[in-house]
Write a structure and sequence with these properties.
With 97 residues, the protein is mainly alpha-helical. Helix content is 69%, strand content 0%. It has helices spanning 8-18, 20-25, 29-44, 46-52, 58-84.
Length: 97
């Protein structure tokens, strides 16, 4: 017997394809490129997304995008502090509970 449920990776590819009409109607190449980068973030975190076991596929996709954007914010914040001359030795973060 074959699988009845597609793998998470296959499911996100299908979900990404379902958003192609939105992508294609974005007004600029820059916006389409930003969309593609976000979808690549979903692919990058597909293993974590599959382990999240969420019934709504879109939720781990959005969390993957948020994680990557937060990483970029922290990196840019650190670079700004370095340029400003007030860099800490590590990026300050709130401790996990």
């Amino acid at each position: 017997m074959g699988k009845t449920v597609p793998s998470y990776r296959m499911a996100i590819e299908s979900e990404i394809q379902s958003w192609n009409r939105l992508r294609d109607t974005l007004s600029s190449q820059e916006e389409r490129q930003a969309f593609d980068v976000m979808m690549d973030y979903c692919r990058k975190h597909s293993m974590a997304g599959s382990n999240a076991c969420r019934p709504v596929l879109f939720e781990p996709m959005v969390m993957s995008i948020i994680v990557e954007q937060q990483k970029l914010i922290l990196k840019l914040q650190h670079e700004f502090e370095v340029l400003r001359g007030s860099a800490k030795t590590t990026i300050e973060q709130k401790p996990r509970k």
